[in-house]
Amino acid sequence: KEKPQEGEVIAVGPGRIDDNGNRVPLDIAVGDKVIYSKYGGTEVKFGGDDLLVLSARDVLAVVVR
Hints:
It is a single chain. It contains no helices and seven strands. It is mainly beta and 65 residues long. It has a single domain (5-63), classed as GroES chaperonin (10 Kd Chaperonin, Protein Cpn10, Chain O). Strand 5 (42-46) and strand 6 form a beta hairpin.
């Protein structure tokens, strides 16, 4: 069984639009530590850094320590 991955959130979008046209904000904030599925997201290079862009559905949990 593959272990999930852990990382820190450095940016978030505004959230999705629901069926009524209302914005649904995310429950994730910059600075949160999250656990995400191993094969989720898209790897990108930005400013010399290797980053991973995830959708909210790829995030399994927010880590509280």
